[in-house]
Amino acid sequence: MNTLPLRAALTSFVIAVSSVLPHPASGQATVDSPAAVGAPEAERPRASNKWRIVFDERAKSDGTITFRVWPKDGQLFQVDVAVIDGQSENHIASSVRDALRVALGKGFHVETDDGEDVLVKARHGTGAFGLQLIGNTARDVDIKLRRE
Fold first, then answer.
1. Cβ atoms < 10 Å from Cβ of 125
2. How far apart are CA 104 and CA 13, in angstroms?
3. What is the SS3 assignment for 4?
4. I want to staple 25 with a disulfide (CB 3.0 to 4.6 A). Which of 18, 39, 107, 112 is the partner?
5. Burial of 142 by CB count in 10 Å (0-12 exposed, 13-18 middle, 19+ buried)?
6. Beta bridge partners of 44
7. How far apart are alpha carbons 51 and 131 in whole angstroms?
8. Contact predicate 94/28, CB 8 Å
9. Closest to 29 in 3D by CA, of 67, 59, 55, 61
10. Which of 117, 98, 120 minimizes the C-alpha distance to 107?
11. What is the pLDDT of residues 9-54, one digit of tens each?
12. Which helix (H) or strand (E) holds 112?
């Protein structure tokens, strides 16, 4: 029995529910303080007003993709995105897009491009920000992050 459509539907449901809750649902997007993230100011990446996240390959296991965001005038925070075994790069990109939209808020525009890419842009007045990929436990999912 192919459980991928059921898993994809369940993931979409969890993302939809988490977007209307007063706080992010566990496993979708979490926001941690700098102490919890454990990154000193010296590790701040070079800032940009636009980032591209490129996904390749289907997930061969459940896992979590973890990003660290360094806002221009704010505290860094972490965003965790759940990945389900069998998800395609397009579905993974959509999950990351949705989690970053919730975590970043109105000062940013987050969209998918070509299905498997996620573009994260600072809106006018928000300022450049840093973005780091700090972890990926989903087997065979290749992720590239670059400034644009």
1. 6
2. 20
3. helix
4. 18
5. exposed
6. none
7. 8
8. no
9. 67
10. 120
11. 444 444 443 433 333 333 344 445 444 445 555 477 789 999 999 9
12. strand 108-113
Tens digits of residue pLDDT in 90-118: 999 999 999 999 999 999 999 999 999 99
Neighbouring C-beta atoms of residue 55, cutoff 10 Å: 27
Retrieve residue 136's tokens. Answer: 């990926």
Tokens of 106: 């109105």
Determine the Cα–Cα distance for residues 96 and 128; give it in Å rounded to an integer: 20
Helix or strand or coil: residue 135?
strand
The closest alpha carbon to 143, from 98, 104, 101, 95, belongs to 95
- Measured CA to CA, the distance from residue 76 to residue 88 in angstroms comes to 29
Regarding the domain delimited by 4-147, which CATH topology (the fold level of the hierarchy) does it fall under? Immunoglobulin-like (2.60.40)
Structure tokens at 97: 């897009």
Q: How far apart are CA 94 and CA 99, in angstroms?
A: 9
